[in-house]
Write a structure and sequence with these properties.
Layout: H1 22-36, H2 43-52, E1 56-57, E2 62-63, E3 68-69, E4 75-77, E5 82-83, E6 88-90, E7 95-97, E8 102-103, E9 108-110, E10 112-114, E11 123-125, E12 128-130, E13 135-136, E14 141-142, E15 147-148, E16 153-154, E17 159-160, E18 168-171, E19 176-180
Parallel strand pairs: 1-4, 2-5, 3-6, 4-7, 5-8, 6-9, 7-12, 8-13, 9-14, 12-15, 13-16, 14-17, 16-18
Antiparallel strand pairs: 10-11, 18-19
């Protein structure tokens, strides 16, 4: 049996539309580079710029330095959300960060992937949601189509390839349910 091989020359993602013109995308890349991927300290300016480019942004949102956001018009951020240093939000699809959710340093939210079963390596996209109080720990990866349930915790370095149930702690690659998350006052 002769196995087929990946043929990247046959890759086409013409069906995918980022949602804005090439000019707006180009301007956003410059703004992202200057104000988000740098050490620019003002949360208020970052919130303003995200809204200017079509993101929904609640109050009290903290966006640390060196954050990369692919397309702000696919981003919905609730109130009092924290986004840590060096977070990458690769939102080819909608990303929703509900109230009091947290994304720690170096975490990646990846809305895109490729179909490894096709020779053409087709683009696959899926939305990501962090429900209220969900926490993606440092250096975690959240894959396309995944939802972190309310108050769930994805621990340091873990990879969520499937949705996480509310109020549970998950760990590993792929992330597995470890124990209930107990929150005390």
């Amino acid at each position: 049996m002769t196995a087929l091989k990946t043929d990247l020359s046959s890759f086409k993602n013409d069906w995918y539309k980022p949602g804005r013109s090439s000019l707006i995308i180009g301007i956003w890349y410059i703004v992202n580079r200057i104000f988000f991927k740098s050490f620019f300290p003002s949360y208020a300016v970052k919130r303003f710029l995200l809204r200017l480019f079509g993101a929904r942004v609640g109050k009290g949102v903290v966006i640390k330095p060196h954050v990369s956001i692919k397309y702000p018009w696919h981003l919905n951020i609730g109130n009092h959300v924290w986004i840590g240093e060096e977070v990458w939000i690769d939102n080819l699809a909608k990303v929703t960060l509900k109230d009091h959710s947290c994304i720690s340093q170096g975490a990646m939210l990846l809305c895109g992937n490729h179909n490894y079963k096709k020779t053409s390596f087709d683009l696959l996209v899926g939305e990501i949601t962090l429900e209220e109080g969900a926490w993606a720990g440092a250096k975690t990866v959240v894959c396309p189509g995944v939802k972190l349930g309310s108050n769930s915790l994805l621990t340091v370095g873990s990879i969520a390839t499937a949705s996480l149930e509310a109020n549970w702690i998950y760990q590993g690659n792929p992330a597995k349910k470890i124990k209930l998350r107990e929150i005390k006052s």
